[in-house]
């Protein structure tokens, strides 16, 4: 009999296994994929944004914020750095507090974690898809591929259903439910957003990438994210969109659609842009507005700016004396509205919100309050974080806590 069975050889499962094996436990990890770390290898575009130097509480979300506070108490960025140092992985810092492996390769994170498991005698079984977990007569019984193994402790480190193409499933949620846990409803986050516009309108904009400021009216406030926005044939992508997607998806739980406001020129104020454009107007110019605007903005954006203002057939000369028209153009550039009605779903999402209710899990040990000896770690829990290394940070810290508590 094993001391510990870990289901899932992802971020949180591997760390849990290492920390408990270091404490002398006999550990087995069951992984359904044929190789380890499929999702980890895809993180940070293959570079793995492994953690963040400033994992402050407002970067994480859960229906039970108290849990987040308690999980991170005493476990900082330095704790994560120290752990990786202990397996021989050096980290480097980048912009916005993001942290990467010094090699800038996600594969080195996976290889060093696996090597440490092997050196500690952790048994890793791949292509072992767990179908059932139960507790009887003082031990856990885990079934996979017509085989059963028994252990004193069971760790659910199965992640959530984001990126199914990389192995994302709901299995851990169902296992937790079978032990009596309640589940917080999920929705995809850090995901591309879809728009209800005609195909021709989207096609016209498709491929345009702009440094923007994106605003969403949200519960009487405004959520603002800055970064690139990519117009696509289905809607919007780009870092600013991934960043705002959690709030958009939350709004879409109760609304059919929402309006994003995109400032297409965030580096200039309304007044600065107006002054710049005004200077380039000449009284007698017959230059069409759509040609003149190319001096300022991506050509594909011009029709969607001019058409709603009914200015598509005007010339520079005709708006020279009509400053209101120029005001309207500037306003449209600084306040470009774009309707959103959904997302690309879990296939496009980096993370799932929701999961095992954190009111039923001890934040110090990750032990279930429904079943003694059961531990729940990582994305399977109802906690998710912003883009920037926060989701992996959570997975590592859960693993450090659970592994140290057996
Ligand atoms: C494309 C992409 C890029 C990302 N980039 C980043 C980034 O740069 N930084 C960051 O912080 N976060 C990033 N994330 C999010 C991050 O990868 C996850 O939050 C993190 O991996 C969750 O860790 P976990 O241990 O909970 O689950 P996972 O790492 O998903 O591991 C769960 C494991 O359990 C296995 N499993 C599931 N069910 C079973 C079963 N029944 N039997 C056996 N095994 C099972 C799965 O195959 C998987 O290997 C990214 C996500 C994606 C999809």
How would you explain this protein's 3D organization?
With 406 residues, the protein is an alpha+beta fold. It has 14 helices and 23 strands. It has helices at residues 11-22, 38-42, 65-72, 77-86, 106-119, 171-178, 199-205, 239-251, 270-279, 289-292, 299-306, 316-320, 323-334, 390-405, and strands at 2-7, 27-30, 51-52, 60-61, 91-93, 98-101, 123-125, 130-136, 139-144, 147-156, 183-184, 188-189, 193-194, 209-218, 221-231, 235-237, 258-263, 336-340, 342-343, 351-352, 355-356, 374-376, 384-385. Strands 1, 2, 7, 8, 9, 10 and 22 form a 7-stranded mixed beta sheet that branches. It has a 7-stranded antiparallel beta sheet with strand order 18-17-14-15-16-13-19. The mean pLDDT is 96. The structure holds flavin-adenine dinucleotide (FAD). Flavin-adenine dinucleotide is lined by residues 7-13, 30-33, 39-40, 42-44, 48-49, 128-130, 157-159, 162-163, 166-167, 169, 171-172, 350-351, 378-380, 389-392, 395.
Return the domain count: 2
CATH architecture of the largest domain: 3-Layer(bba) Sandwich
Can you tell me the residue ranges where pLDDT is under 50 for at least 5 consecutive residues?
Answer: none
Q: Estimate the helix proportion, in percent.
A: 25-40%
| Largest β sheet strand count, sense and barrel closure | 7 strands, mixed
User: What compounds are bound to the protein?
Assistant: flavin-adenine dinucleotide
**CATH uppermost class of the largest domain:** Alpha Beta
Which quaternary structure do these chains form?
single chain
The assigned structural class equals alpha+beta
Number of separate helices? 14
* End-to-end C-alpha gap: 15 Å
The mean pLDDT is 96
